[in-house]
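User: Please predict the structure of the protein below. I'd like the answer in structure-token form so I can feed it into my own downstream comparison script.

Assistant: Understood. Taking the following sequence of 190 residues as input:
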Amino acid sequence: MSEHTSAAILDLLDGCLRGDRRSQELLYRQFYGYAMGLCMRYAKNRDEAKEILNEGFFKVFTKIESFDRERSFKTWLGRVMINTALDQYRREAKHQVFEDVEQAQHLAAIDANAVSQLSHQELLGMVQELPPAYRMVFSLAVIDGYTHEEIAEKLEISVGASKSNLSRAREKLKVMLSKKSLDEYERVVR
């Protein structure tokens, strides 16, 4: 048994391997919140996140035998969900053209003070408003800690495009933060 995966979860995984619907349902319920949180970072809205979540759990249940019991199930599940979101993005991106800017400008990071005052939901809402290419790169780089080289490989874009999309995502988020700050100031002054 893995030190990262409890005996109860391993029992559920054994049930899933046997095709037991009850085990699948319990595993789904156990990890729904975690998986949905991951999917929301990559989706443009809740409906798209649910699609990614359902497709991801389908992959989990059909490929459960590939899970290495010496590792953390939660980490494996997270990778499946992120890869499913990336697959969804690639399907949609086939119809879009990426701007490949080799000399991406490095903009200043989003004002940490403004970000710290946002609730998790407000920040998630702003990220979801980003165009798909920016949202994917921002989530992979800032939230999940991937390098530009890893992002370029996962999204099948150049490193320059990854840097450019991250830079533009940050710029759009700055504009959203500025607008939010101005709106709040006007609300207080009135």
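That's the full token string. The radius of gyration is 19 Å.
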